[in-house]
Structures
1.
Amino acid sequence: MTDTSTTTQTPLERDLAALTAAPALDSARPLWQQALAQHDAAPAPAPRSIFKRPINQRYAAAAGLLLLVSAAIIAAILPARSPGAYPAVDGGALSLADLPTSAPFADSSRSDGGSIGLAKDDLSRAVAAVAEAAAPTPVFEDRLSENASRSSAKAALQSIQSRSEPLKPTSAPAPSSPAPAASAPATATPAFDPSLFYDRLVIRKANIDLKTSSPSQAALKAAALVNPADGEFIQSSNALSDISATVTLRVRSARVDDVLAQLRALGTVTTETQSGEDVTDQMVDLEARLRNERRIETELIALVEARRGAPLGELMSLRENLDRARERIERLAAQRERVGRQVALATIQASFSSPDTPAPTKASEDTFLDRLALATSRGLEDFGRSITKLIEIILGGLLVWIGLGLLALIFIILFRRALRPNSYEPPPRA
Amino acid sequence: MPLPPTIPDPDLPLLQRFAAGDRAALGELAQRFEAPLMGLATGLLGPRQQLAADAVQDAWLRVIRSASTFQARSTVKTWLYRIVINRCHDLRSTRKTPAGPVLRLAEDADEPRPRTEQPTAEHDRLDPLRAALDRLKPDQRLLLLLCYHHDMTLTQAAQVLDIPVGTVKSRLHTALESLRKTLATSLGPSFSAARAHEAAP
């Protein structure tokens, strides 16, 4: 070895050199001549190659196999999303195919004419027609299903607002005996309106403060604005004082503007606020969960029927599950009723005071510092939520990412080896 | 690692002549390199001469087939050595050359002694060194054999391995240390005595 200060080699280095010392060769048949003869006897075969480079068949086969296995694993992990395999109802998901024939907003106990009833046969048919006409993709079906639930809820609302009977408190429906749609009154079956697809369900609230010379009289007049025939009522009233009076009205959402206008005529308005809470998504979610729970209940009932001769322990377990499912159904139905009532009837709080009464001070949250504190608090909460979400994403997907990374790494190594069988040999020239 | 343009490759005209159809040029090229290539193949594959001969013959076959496409991005010598080293790697992996000296000795008993004129005593003397080399990592073994091979320079070794000369030096140092440790472990006091003798002026 030259290029270095190895003019005086150590014994070890001399031994290393001896290991690769040039041997005396057989001069009768040099290797190059044998190679030449071999080449003459069998010319170079056409290279089996892709990308005009020689391929190491074993590595290429291993890389291909790895690719196939990876694809199979991914296909097994990812849920099938083809339109044919799209689940009708799965874990709360909604689908057109599973739209119920009974009203989603009313249960059997509410189909008595006083309920918030809605026959959904028409709705289902209309939604299906729209979906068919639009040749929907699964995503579009999702939207349609969601909008269908919204429209059904909205239509139910309309039915509430258009009927003359007062609302009656109802109990949770018996899930195993859904009411037939035909039992709903004809007036409670609104025609399908595509514009309802994009309407929202909003809980409306309004506050109005007025100055009047006679607060108690004004409060009485305000209380007279409710129309009990439409299910409207007076939620609370405090009109005992001549200095001030407060009345809280529950009126149909469609009549809020009208009632407010009449209230304004009772005095001088000092403060008036309105607010709305969009509960459309909540309603859709409730519908979906309720439908799913009912399906579970039906399946459990079928199981109990089928396993009548089963051991007592198994039957008891089935019964317990059934009870739990029914409990969840009742809870969800009650929740849905409550939200639906809030949407149907807006809340108007009217406060009357005499002109001598000092104006109420502004709410503390209106001051700059309080708003700043509130904003800071909300910002911190959002920050905490985002950090939590980030940790969820990282930890939840860590194994998947590591697995995919390893597979990709192995594939790249195999592919490179397949293309470069001789790591030190310069690539053949074209 | 391309050759600096100021240094002409003395073997390139021979390869070009062969590519043009002059078979004798390959003979001249072989006269320069066949024996050293055989020596390196023997070092890499062990004393089994036939395996080394196969590697070199395969390498010549590749040269014959690829001579017309050689673009002189490296010297002919570097190219030849790369081909032989790769063939040795392939043969070593496919024929599963035993790593341990015990197995090798058992195989040697079935094989005729190498065609080299290496005396038996010399051959046996180098057995511990071969065994120690076999225990090293393949990269280190190749580096040691290549750098101390025949008239190989560090620059040429770096070109063959396609790494910088500085890297060759550092890796060579590490490989030598590993080899010494391995020998000290296997030979014990006798190696220490040899080291002492080596250190003496």
Note: DSSP finds ten helices and seven strands in chain A.
2.
Amino acid sequence: MRYGIFVAALLVAPAVGVAQPPAGASEALEKVCGACHSVETVTGQRRTRAEWQESINAMVARGAEGTDAEFALILDYLTTQYGPTAAPAAPAAGRGGRGPAFSPGPADKQVVDEAAANRGRKVYAAECITCHGTHARGSERGADLVRSEIVLHDRYGSTLGPFLKKGHPTQTTPAAQLTGAQIVDLSHTIHQEVYNTLRAALQIQNVVTGDPQAGAAYFNGAGKCSTCHSAAGDMAHIASRMDAPELQQRFLFPGGRGGGRGRGGAATAAKPVMVTVTPASSAAIAGSAITGTLVHIDDFNVALRDGAGEYHSFKRTPALKVVKSDPAQAHHELLDQYTDRNIHDIVAYLETMK
Amino acid sequence: MKTLGTFLIASAALMAQGGLNPARLGAPPTDTWPTYNGDYSGRRYSTLSKINQSNINSLTLAWVYRANGAPGGGGGFGGRISATPVEVNGVLYFTMPDHAWAVDARTGREVWHYAWTSHGGDHIGNRGAGVYGNWLYFETPDCNLVSLNLKDGKERWHKPICDLDQYYFGSMAPLVVKNHIITGVSGDDLDRPGYIESHDPETGDLQWRWYTVPQKMGDAGSESWPSEEAMKHGGGMTWLTPTYDPELNMIYVPTGNPQPVIAGKARPGANLFTASVVALNPDTGKMQWYFQSSPHDTHDWDATQTPVLFDGEINGQKRKLVAQASRNGYFFVLDRATGKNLASAEYVKINWSKGVDAKGSPIPNPAKEPQLDGALVSPNQGGGTNWPPPTYDPDTGLFYVSASRAFSVYYIYDPSDKPEGWGGNDRGGWGETMIQAIDYKTGKVKWSHKWEDGGRSGLLSTAGKLLFAGDGSGNLVALDPANGNPLWHANLGSSVTNGPITYELDGTQYLVVAAGDTLFGFAMLR
């Protein structure tokens, strides 16, 4: 799949009137992603929105730090600037030919031609599959080709060709009968299996394994979900708005980070974290508490935007009272309480809300 | 003794040439920071105290060096400096993938810059350089060990250390021990065996290689694998610079997670010697002992966190210790002569273990292995901590680590009997980060300082009663090592991306830290 996208990126001319990057997005990319790896690791890729979301999820899981707003900006930026139809990335000096995200491998690695790989699959099915298996991972009768150094060193048949020409004990067709073109096709097929073994080729299988009735009981009982949510209210048709894997991630980790944003971003945006700051009674704006959306907080400063849209920034001192209010706090606390069974029961229950 | 005598004579000869006297590698760093961790112990503790609690508010920015777009730098490297610079004779040497720099340690002015023409590899980061005599050594993403002349950055030679076609890459800061340049390999994409090598400092020739996984049935550790096929593809990459005890003549090598990384169905067993701390003889590469931090890991929790060496007292007995805050959320204390476990304790709350076995290794709960429909696990794949270096402060007796309490859901994507590569992953989630101060005698967390806005940096402690760290908002922060109270901060505009270092030159103590593509030099100029 990835290679289909990669090839498409090379063949399709850049769309006319490429979307402008969202303001501040490249800075967010540099800050959040650049904190752990070079940004060009990312921008050498061409992916769909869903695939970029998957990459971001994987990075959050590996410790990427950013605000929800930053992750949303990065997703929009990567989708508009590095989508499947964007112009191919100019290879960085001395590099190029980048493969799947975060698995660059050698610069001269084989670029799989999907048509050739499909042709090669017929040769593979006739000649190789009995011993080397459907996905070239070997069997009791034949070696694992995905792990074969002959394959990993191969480029378009360069090592595979000479190896097959020599013939090996179980080779059914005499080596001389495999044409050069067939060997190249076979090389594409096997390399495709190697690339599918690298990261992110597969997806979540099925998360709807729980008991919807037990899920309803947890929703209305121990989980206290019904304190804020109802099946007829905000949860109505939730299972039509996002698929089951997204649903599972979303209630565990509300806020879109790692949870995805549902199909086409139709899911409701997470509510922002609020903060109330009360200056010391001797201060110029004494005593009056200011509440607003939390913009920034660290050990030394706090900033918020109030209901009128005004920005306020404060130096944190022992006299300054700061009270944060995270609407998802109950969700965070549940992480210590759920069993995996509870989680799957809730998903099964939410899945009934089509 | 004869060896030592020869070694000292060789050292004196090297020093006469104006390079690094290898004997300095064993001493606490003062006017130099000659190796990744400052010294062999991995403590990242400095005896310098000109910068201290009483004057920290006078600490001044002395210089800035921007590696991205610097004169002669070529520009546009992207990314960040995760290298810990080394400082020798007043010059700082640091790296980014494919690049090495020499910068004046007093002024931040560039002395030279070296650019390697890459043939690929993962450019995720480079941890720094090693120095031996007049020569610098660093690894490239495309699997080369490069030796440069310290004086002008001219290349002397380069030698292959791994095979790029097998998706290995280079990122570790080489360790110099006597006449050995120790190199490690990185890479988690295809299922390959990890190893660590020693190279001749003059020629780069291979002296020995030690595989982190057994190579044939019957070898030590093979009883923990189902087949030769599984163990020869069993991972255990050597991402991080080892530490070294010259008296015991042992290097302490932290090893990576087993492979296939998440989908471990075809590798039942403990999978030795992955996710372990292993003591090797640096002259022969022979294993002396091992301790496994994560038996049969299926969460990408490598044990490539610095094994920190210090001497201490446990139950009234003086001991030579090695301690590790491991990625899986456990803190371990071992006797570093024998590998005997003395303490195992969670430094963040976790949910995947059923306790520890008789040897002190955690017992993974099979229900918290990745599942087809997902298992909620803490810590997440990023771990309770990660590669950023911790510090041990002998003045407080506390071990400090940048920690994370995070949750994610681990999935199996490939339901087959022989998953390979990444047949699963985790998604999510939610977490918070903090500095944990751990009492090594008990493994208990003495104090915890939670960051408001994330943050995970390398750490440094000093005799000035200061603990340096970076928060998630771009602040370099000095904390009180006794209780975690923030004492001073400076916003660098980008989060700290390496481990801070300190050194004294001409009576001035400097503090150097990287944030993004920029190196900042602070100094007590008054």
Note: Chain A touches chain B through 73 residues (CB under 8 Å).
